[in-house]
Structures are given as structure tokens and as C-alpha cells.
Amino acid sequence: MGMRRDAREKVVQFLYYKESVPSYTLEAALNFFWQSQEVRQDVFKFASRLIQGVLEKQKEIDLKIEPISKHWDFDRIAPIDRNILRLAFYEMLFCDDIPPVVTINEAIEIAKKFSTEESGKFVNGFLDVLRKDLPRPARQSAGK
CB of 130 within 8 A of CB of 69? Predict the structure, then answer.
């Protein structure tokens, strides 16, 4: 598995964990989570960047996801799928160095691994709507 996939999986696991134990402070949750993981420094660094970004922009991200979930109450989306969407929306909206199609493919594979086979299709549906509204090419980073 590539470094970035590994990092993204750790991000989704942390976001799920943090949502499951909301009474923990962010610092306590991060400390506990990272102490229970064995990761390379590059994985830790990339995952930490994404975790920080998703948490800083979570309200804004959730407001972008909610209108797309017309037939789903946002809070009823499976927690793992909701957090995969949060990560992917963060990357697509705020990480110009990552091509949107890369983010979409990664999110689908992570959904299949941590949720259900159908979750890949579910996640893809949301991300495809966002991709169509992005003001940048889907197959390259904004810097290219």
C-alpha cells in the first residue's frame, strides 16, 4: 500500500474514533490514537496534515455535503462513510496539490475496505457531484 493511502486510512480511522468518543479532547484523542498505531514518519506527517485540515474545515465541509444528501439525513449516513466523505471533500476543496480523481478513487477504495461494497458507489455519487462543481481540472493538481 502506498504512503498516501495508508495515511488516508489512518485519517478515516481517527475521524471515526474521534466521533465515537466526543468527550475526549482533541489532544487526548490524537495522543491515544497515535500511540496505538505503528506508522512511518511520512504517513504520520501526511495524515496529521489531513486530520488538522478536516477538523478545521469540518463545519464548512458538512455544509457542502448536506445539500447533496437530498434523500439522506446527514446524521443517518453511516459514520465511516460520513468521515470518508469529509476527508475527500477536504482534499477536493482545499488540497490543490491532489488531483480530484485521485481523491475520488482513494475514497471509493477506502469505503470498500472499511464499510461495504455498496459504500463505494454511495461515496462515488457524492464525490461526482462535487467534482462537477470544482473550478479546476479533475485529472491534475491545480499547480499543473
Answer: no
Which tens digit of pLDDT belongs to each residue from 87-104?
999 999 999 999 999 999
Q: Determine the structural domain holding residue 16 and report its residue range.
A: 3-133
CB 110, CB 84: distance < 8 Å: yes
Residue 79, domain CATH? 1.10.940.10
Work out how many domains the chain is built from and give that number: 1
Q: Identify the burial level of 36 via C-beta atoms within 10 angstroms of its C-beta, where 0-12 means exposed, 13-18 middle and 19 or more buried.
A: exposed
Q: In this structure, what is the dihedral angle of CA atoms 99, 105, 109, 114, given to the nearest 10 degrees?
A: 60
Determine contact, residues 34/101, Cβ cutoff 8 Å: no
Cell readout for 132 is 462537477
- Grid cell listed for 53: 485540515
